[in-house]
Amino acid sequence: MKPARFDYVRAESVDHALEVLSQNGDEAKIIAGGQSLMPMINFRLVKPSVLIDINRIPGLEIIEDKGDRVHMGALARHRMTACDATIRRKIPVLHEVMHHVAHMTIRNRGTFCGSVCHADPAAEMPMIVQMLDGEIEIASASKRRVLPAAAFLVGSLVNALEPDEMVTGITIGTSPAGAGWAFEEFSRRHGDFAMAAIAVTLRTDDGRAIRDARIGMTGVGETAMRLHGLETLLEERQLDDLLLGEVAEWLNDNLSPNADIHASADYRRNLSGVLAGRAIRRAHARALEMRT
Ligand code: FAD
């Protein structure tokens, strides 16, 4: 398919992009990596009359260490996230996640913030921002605001941006000291969107019991999500088959995945329990290693 006609504006600065957004509102779309937007435009699922290209704006292609948080600029590419030394050291679960995201060519262009804005219910970045207390930095010509990830991700392909707003960056929390981590996903081919995926970080205490678990999932609901209830279930528990049975039961009772041509809702619920068991075991083993 060919796209419908649109005007193209190459923004020279954030203020320039915001000015064009304020003049065009609903009719305009920001383009970052274009890896999700261009297919949607080509299939005419969206028909913006103005595309605002932010790729030449200086200062946005950046990942910054802010101590106990990491700042992802609006043009931090997937490739940068996958290779960044700070992320590898301070948020190893994100480093592991990135090797499951799409393919090399898509990673070269696709952006962390673009993925969060796109809010695909099977994408990994929306899961990470939920799980790691992500804060979304939002700007319009008239104001700046910051939204927690859970408030930003409204539904499948829906975010909380007003028509005249763009995301200028996102900050995420780093892993607590001594936390083990793991990411498990099931997809039909490597690089495809996940049918279900789970990310876990946790610490262990002197008696090997689980502490401070954080769990995010994607592919099993209208949006990626953080599973606070499951985190509570794990707190101060020993890792054994009984606990993992309870985890699978909890997921079965609390998830409402969609059915599609790839898998039924029941299949996804069952898959979630299997992936959760693997991820919790691996995160726990890593947490124990870090204590030695
Ligand atoms: P774009 O396509 O440029 O934009 C996407 C949407 O976000 C648009 O509506 C755009 O207007 C909006 N937007 C972008 N940036 C901003 C901003 N700063 N402010 C406001 N709005 C903004 N993703 C995964 O997570 N996991 C996968 O396994 C995966 N597999 C893929 C496989 C294929 C074959 C393809 C084509 C894509 C895949 N993706 C996957 C998606 C990929 O990660 C995209 O790069 C990402 O979803 C969108 O990022 P982008 O920078 O390309 O955004």
Write a concise keyword list for the protein shown above.
292 residues, alpha+beta, Uridine Diphospho-n-acetylenolpyruvylglucosamine Reductase, domain 2, Uridine Diphospho-n-acetylenolpyruvylglucosamine Reductase, domain 3, Enolase-like, domain 1, 5-stranded antiparallel β-sheet, 4-stranded antiparallel β-sheet, 12 helices, 37% helix, 24% strand, globular, binds flavin-adenine dinucleotide, FAD binding, oxidoreductase, FAD, FAD-bd_PCMH_sub2, Diverse_Substr_Oxidored
Describe the structure.
The protein has 292 residues and is an alpha+beta fold. The chain folds into three domains: 7-53, Uridine Diphospho-n-acetylenolpyruvylglucosamine Reductase, domain 2 (2-Layer Sandwich); 63-173, 2-Layer Sandwich (Uridine Diphospho-n-acetylenolpyruvylglucosamine Reductase, domain 3); 180-291, Enolase-like, domain 1, CATH 3.30.390. The protein is built from twelve helices and 14 strands. The protein has a five-stranded antiparallel sheet with strand order 4-5-10-6-7. A four-stranded antiparallel sheet has the order 11-12-13-14. Helix 7 (112-118) packs across helix 8. The longest helix has 27 residues, at 265-291. It is globular and about 60 Å long. It starts with 6 loop residues before the first strand and ends with a helix. The relative contact order is 0.12. Flavin-adenine dinucleotide is lined by residues 29-37, 74, 101-102, 106, 110-111, 113-115, 117-118, 120, 123-125, 161, 166-167, 191-193. This is Xanthine dehydrogenase family protein subunit M. Residues 1-177 form the FAD-binding PCMH-type domain. Pfam families: CO_deh_flav_C (PF03450), FAD_binding_5 (PF00941). GO terms for molecular function: FAD binding; oxidoreductase activity. Keywords: FAD, Flavoprotein, Oxidoreductase.
